[in-house]
Amino acid sequence: MAALPHRIGMKFSIREKRKAAGFTQEYMAEMLGISPGLYNGLETGKRRMNETYLEGIANILRVTVSELIIEDRPTIAIAGKVGAGARVDFFRNHQSVKKPAIERPIQTGSDELRALLVEGDGMSPIFNEGDYLIFKAEDSAGGVPDDAVGHICIATDEHGVSSVRHVTSGPEPGLFHLLGLKPGTTPDWDARLKWAARVRLHWPAEFARKA
């Protein structure tokens, strides 16, 4: 029997697909020619899977091997939402989403990232409802990184108010102009910021997948 070393630790959706097919563990064990105890261990992850067992299970359930494998894809935590007036509501004291994470886009590298969920049309047509704005977690630790100036950022001012704005340099060090993304939005001139995190990626709703 093949050792299946490249899938050690992988998760499988065998139980769900077996129950959907209406088969019992005893039936699966009989078809595979193994004991019910061994089959139970394979299904629950207490016994190591190998290629022979996996292919046999797939054949019995009439699915492909890949359909039995649950991909453990990296995720990005949803840190909050941005709504009317481009105001940001961070999920500090409450959890308002069932699954506060999205699958991580492949091209985002290895940095620790966070995401904001766009609600409403307060920033359309640049950002639309259901989109995600992704930023580096380290950028929210404090201060305004040099590469944030001149770009769209999640910014928190000296009063603790957070919003999504285009951040530009002010008349002196420590002062910034916060420009709205929607026409007609009144700018915040000469604002002092606790921190600003540049929006590294705009992930449209049609591409985003909840984790």
Structural overview:
- By secondary structure, the protein is an alpha+beta fold.
- The chain has five helices and 13 strands.
- Strands 3, 4, 5, 6, 7 and 13 form a six-stranded mixed beta sheet that branches. The protein has a five-stranded antiparallel beta sheet with strand order 11-10-9-8-12, with no helix packed on it.
- A hairpin with a 6-residue loop joins strand 9 and strand 10.
- Helix 2 crosses helix 3.
- The N terminus is likely disordered.
Give the helices and strands as they follow along the chain.
EHHHHHEEEEEEEEEEEE
State the helix count: 5
DSSP strand content: 25-35%
Mean of residue pLDDT? 88
The level of helicity is 10-25%
Distance between the termini: 34 Å
Short summary:
The protein is an alpha+beta fold and 211 residues long.
Q: Would you spell out the secondary-structure blueprint of this structure?
A:
Blueprint lengths: L10 E2 L1 H8 L3 H8 L3 H9 L6 H11 L3 H4 E2 L4 E8 L5 E3 L10 E3 L9 E6 L13 E5 L14 E7 L4 E8 L6 E4 L8 E4 L1 E6 L2 E3 L8
Parallel strand pairs: 3-6
Antiparallel strand pairs: 1-2, 3-4, 3-5, 6-7, 7-13, 8-9, 8-12, 9-10, 10-11
Task: Give descriptors for this structure.
six-stranded mixed sheet, 211 residues, alpha+beta, 29% strand
